[in-house]
Amino acid sequence: MTRLGARDFLALLRAWPDAPASPPPVDAERFVRATARHGLAGFAVHAAERAGWVFPEAASELLRRESMSTAARAIRVHALLLRSVDALATVGVVPVLLKGPALARRLYPEPFLRATTDVDLLVAGAQVEAASRALEGLGLARAPERPGHGGEHSHHREFQGPAGLVELHFRALVGYGQALEADALLAHAEEAELEGRRVRYLRAEEELVYLSLHASNHLLQRLSWLLDLKLLLLAHPRLRWPLVVEVARASALPHLAWYALEAARRLLGAPVPSEVLSELAPPRWQRLLASRFFSEERLLGTALVEHKAEWAAAKLLLAPRAGPMARYAVWRLGEAVRARLPSALRR
Fold first, then answer.
1. Which value, in Å, is the radius of gyration of the alpha carbons in the chain?
2. Which of 165, 182, 202 is the last residue of a domain?
3. pTM for this structure?
4. Domain limit, last residue, from 170, 186, 202
5. What are the pLDDT tens digits along the chain (347 aa)?
């Protein structure tokens, strides 16, 4: 991705909800491929039309195909979301909807402009077994735990089938050797309605922290995650920032909140107060590393996804706490060794 291409793509995101002052991209095809890489082809169509940008025919057709593909997948996931909510209702479970199509429906100008691949539901630990049986009743089979995600490092069950993938969370998130537990989030979740169905959402301050932690746990490799933060802030201009700081600190992962919120403000112009960043900031050496790992050019090009060694280094160096991360790394190494042993020796 050229520096000019980065400027064009980010200009669209940074200016939203206004139109960018810049003209249409010079390298329109690179621009389109960047929007698709970050799950924002549909949003780019909408925003570019508002900006009055006109693309060459080949790039316009490519953007149209990418946006239609995004919408088709999102519609499929949304249908599975509704079926999952209905199934859980039969066993008396009202889940909290995380990320995905429900988030896009609340924050984006149209519901299927943001790429999504699965359904994420958060329930209390005591509800997991009943909810699991309900999802299996939809023809979804529980998938085995992926390497590196078992035991104390597990936070959800995966259910797969022809209709798609559902992740049933009993913890909100696990990362850097630590967990964001669900109890407090569930206690404060707000009742809502989705197409006539009872659902719940995290309250805005906790949703902002959760989305920030999730984005940083994946090293900010999709700009759609940063745009989610900006749109959430625009939708909640009276957000209680002291509560955001309190929730982030209570999670034991405040550095992760800082990485995402700082990048959203720097790259997309998200309205994050300076004093909030100051209160959540990691040590100076980690801020300097973050400026390298999360530079404009590297995030736009998803550089860390392409380099596993650098990904691992970023995870280790940016960890909020060295001890839990080191123990997790040792556990992952042990699991990798164990997976290579003959089955008779694994017992």
1. 20
2. 202
3. 0.91
4. 202
5. 445 556 788 999 999 999 998 888 988 989 999 999 999 999 999 999 999 999 999 999 999 999 999 999 999 999 999 999 999 999 999 999 999 999 999 999 999 999 999 999 999 999 999 999 999 999 999 998 765 555 556 889 999 999 999 999 999 988 877 888 899 999 999 999 999 999 999 999 999 999 999 999 999 999 999 999 999 999 999 999 999 999 999 998 999 999 999 999 999 999 999 999 999 999 999 999 999 999 999 999 999 998 999 999 999 999 987 666 555 555 454 544 444 556 554 45
Residue 26 in any domain: the answer is no
For residues 218 and 293, the answer to whether their CB atoms sit within 8 Å is: no
Residue 168 near residue 156 (C-beta atoms within 8 A): yes
Residues 99 and 111 reside in one and the same domain: yes
Whether 173 and 214 have beta carbons less than 8 Å apart is answered as yes
Residue 256 contacts by C-beta under 8 Å, 6 or more apart in sequence?
A: 175, 176, 212, 213, 216, 217, 320
Q: Domain range for residue 278?
A: 203-337
Indicate the helix (H) or strand (E) that contains 212.
helix 204-217
